[in-house]
Amino acid sequence: MFFENDQAMSAVGRELLANSFEFIPIPILISECSNSGDINSGRWHRFSNQAFRQQIGYSLEDMPDIDSWFQLAYPDAGYRAQVMQAWVQEVERCQARGQPLAELTTLVCCADGQQRWFIITAQIQAAALPFLQIITFRDVHELKCTVDENIRLSRTDFLTRLLNRREASKRLQQAWEGWQCEGEIFSVLLCDIDGFKHINDQYGHACGDHMLVFFADQLTALFEGQADSVRWGGEEFLLILPATDLAGAARAAERLRQQIADSKPVWQQQALGLTVSIGYTSAAGHGELEGVLHAVDVAMYRAKFQGRNCVCQG
């Protein structure tokens, strides 16, 4: 281990610093900094401890400076740019508050190809050794994955993996507030699988579950990235369509109706017919969110009474 700024440290001090960090059981990286203060540039790596080499896997030869570290740790250019921008913002926030440490949780690509979540803590202010930055890495991969999975389970329906009613209620409220405050229009579709009780009675509940998953997959295929797809309850499904007026909602409803009518889901080697009744409305013309939901519910039942396999405006 060596530093260009030798005036600040004796040989004994350098050796003591290295020995102190070598066997600490969390990965540690020490960088020497330029005078720019930019955490994303002007840094040369001078020391990594045993835990860093074992858990993350890169040597100082692999990543002599900060640029090479970012290239190795974040091979996806888009994610790398996000991480670099997040570091800039975090350092600026900490400096503004006089905090000596900046911290970020990122997904690091290790030398063996594994991608693992680490909490990375960087020392940005050190009066005794101002030219050094000490960076620690805490592996929180299992914890992060468990927390993320629990969050996902709390927001999604266990069978269809669509959003559940609780999460949809939050998103509907957010959409309504956007409409009220910013004029951001949105529309809602409420769908009910036709004859679902008959499917359960004739073919069994396993077939019914299969049809629910099939319908959910059709929603995802048609509207992924364009709408929030929700299992509203039983055989009812809800779609929240942002930036969509009433005419757009009508087109979306008809497209979905036609897609389901043309599909032929298979159960135990038998092709079964499937249709859906859909009500649709937009936020415009309603004084409250409850009015939107009531209108789309009434429209969906009107579609049922008109013979099913059709769409009605609310």
UniProtKB/TrEMBL annotation:
Name of the molecule in the record: diguanylate cyclase
GO MF terms held by the record: diguanylate cyclase activity
Domain GGDEF: 184-314
A GO-annotated cellular component: plasma membrane
GO aspect biological process, one term: negative regulation of bacterial-type flagellum-dependent cell motility
Record-linked CDD domains: GGDEF
Species, as recorded: Aquitalea aquatica
PROSITE patterns named in the record: GGDEF
Catalytic activity: 2 GTP = 3',3'-c-di-GMP + 2 diphosphate
Enzyme Commission numbers on file: 2.7.7.65
